[in-house]
Amino acid sequence: MNDAEKKARLAEALRANLRKRKAQAREQRADAEPQSAFTQAAVDSPR
């Protein structure tokens, strides 16, 4: 495996790790934060 292949694999691994961490962070925020009245009103009232 040459240096360019190693860098490409590392870059892909880092991107995959970032996607996973962002997904986990979104899930934690969704679980932890109750929806505000404003957000809930926007969801409940159709346009």
Give a structural overview.
The longest helix is centred in the middle third of the chain and has 30 residues, at 3-32. The chain has 2 helices and no strands. The mean pLDDT is 83. By secondary structure, the chain is mostly helical.
What is the average of the pLDDT values? 83
Rg, alpha carbons: 19 Å
Low-pLDDT ranges: none
| Secondary-structure element series | HH
Strand content: under 5%
Count of β-strands? 0
- The share of residues in helices is over 70%
The N- and C-terminal alpha carbons lie at a distance of 57 Å
Q: What would the principal axes of the Cα set say about the shape? A: rod-shaped
Structural class: mainly alpha
Provide a count of the helices: 2
Largest sheet entry: none
In short:
The chain is mostly helical and 47 residues long. It has 2 helices and no strands.
Break the fold down into its secondary structure elements and pairings.
Blueprint: H1 3-32, H2 37-44
Supply database-style keywords.
47 residues, mainly alpha, 0% strand, rod-shaped
